[in-house]
Amino acid sequence: NMDYFTLFCMEEMMFGVRRWIVREWDCKSDAFTCLEILRIWEVVWPEEVSIAVLQDIVFSVLKKNCDNWNPFQDSVPIHFWIHPWMDVLGTRMKIELFPSILYKLNIALMSWDPLDFSVVELLAPWANVFTEEQISKLAQSRLIPKLAKYLNQPNVVSSLLIENDKKLQKCLVPVMKWANIIPIVPFSEFA
To answer: What is the pTM of this model?
Structure first.
């Protein structure tokens, strides 16, 4: 049912595009170049070709890199190279990539220290991407227990009881860093 131009694009033009995306494009360090190239070609290609490039080629590269992503070792935060694609691959990403990302974040938080604020920076970009239920479960299983344990340490408890604003602020920093990420309901569990 394809016209000749669509067939030509699918068979000939996509070969070069596929080769560049699969062999040369580094999605982790340069998500925007590929997006710009695809936006330029989108004007020329029939819609079927654009969809095929996104769904078959780009998504497979993103999935492969997501599967290989290690929150402990990768120097480029995953949201830098995943978020730019949410507008064009959003639904598929939510179904096929986000569960894996959430799982890996959950595993990473098992060894997290409440005084390590880099985790806040890692999770903050996902606060409005994952559902409130997903963030809440993550908070209840990994964050709140560790923050509560931190607050119950004798040196923190004694600092909280002393009327010294600077000491109090210093002790509460690890908890308050999470205020914009942890939903309000689980935060009440600290009381």
So the answer is: 0.83
